[in-house]
Every structure is written in structure tokens, then in C-alpha cells.
Write a structure and sequence with these properties.
By secondary structure, the protein is α+β, with helices and mostly antiparallel strands. It is built from one helix and three strands, in the order αβββ.
């Protein structure tokens, strides 16, 4: 007599079991974070930084130096959150 082992689809393999475990743990953590986010005070402030630079050799060439202005535009934002259990400060520039 031979015994044939049949796995439940999706749960017979270690990789799938690890993925399902990570999914469940991640879902529980997300619920905890969402609960904390509801009680928090959030401030979002977008910003744009503009910078002008003058160069007397814009092409970096020894034979044909050329002067010009270079404009840098850098968008970004600041995100601040505060609740009873945590505080968050995020500063981002592109």
C-alpha cells in the first residue's frame, strides 16, 4: 500500500507558509499603526527650493570655456506627526 501526500493548495510549501505568516503579521501591524494614526495630529507642508549658480566654465572644457547660469529646482515636503505614543518628523527633497 502506498501513501500519497496531498498538500492543500498554497499551504504545502515552506515559501508559501512564510509568505502567509508575513502577510498576517504585516496586517496586524498595519491595524496597530492605523489605530495610532487616527489619534495623531499631522502637519504636511510642501516646499520648492530654487537655487541659481553662476559658472565661468559651464562645459568644463579647457579649449572652449563658456559662462552661464545653472538653475536648480528642488521640490520637497515636511511631514510631522504627533500622538500620545510617538512623534514622527520626515523631511524630503527630490
Amino acid at each position: 500500500m502506498t501513501y500519497v501526500r496531498r498538500a492543500i493548495p498554497g499551504f504545502g510549501y515552506p515559501e508559501t507558509a512564510r509568505f502567509v505568516t508575513k502577510l498576517v503579521v504585516g496586517g496586524c501591524l498595519m491595524l496597530l499603526v492605523l489605530e495610532a494614526l487616527q489619534a495623531a495630529e499631522w502637519r504636511f507642508r510642501p516646499r520648492v527650493t530654487l537655487r541659481e549658480t553662476f559658472s565661468d566654465n559651464i562645459n568644463i572644457s579647457a579649449t572652449n570655456p563658456e559662462q552661464d547660469f545653472v538653475t536648480d529646482i528642488s521640490p520637497g515636503f515636511t511631514l510631522r506627526g504627533r500622538s500620545r505614543r510617538f512623534s514622527l518628523n520626515v523631511f524630503y527633497n527630490l
